[in-house]
Amino acid sequence: MRDALFIAIVVLAGTGGEIAVSHVMKRIGEVHSFHLAVVLKALGRAFRMGWMWLGIALMTAGFFSLLALLSWEDVSFVVPVTACSYIVGALGSRFLLGEHVSAARWAGVLLVCFGVALVWIG
Length: 122
Fold this sequence. Notes:
The chain is mainly alpha-helical. The protein contains six helices and no strands.
């Protein structure tokens, strides 16, 4: 039960954070130059948005949950099972960000699901 809870936190919080940060970066727009002033301006705009702070908080929770999970489970179990984040990422990008997910990507997600199932029962 503890493992499942922490896996869920790693997957949902980590991926939720990535989706929140992606939302911010799409609102800011593409950074075309990596001159220090341009990068600092983009970062300044990003850190004034609540979604960025939410994303950072979620990714932090996911990271520390991953550390806890790794402290009591084998890495050969943890890393493959946390690949569920690919599933959550595809669903989140499609339904929360409105991105197009191609059939080939959905097929890849199904393959990941199959692999995670094999690791979980193995």
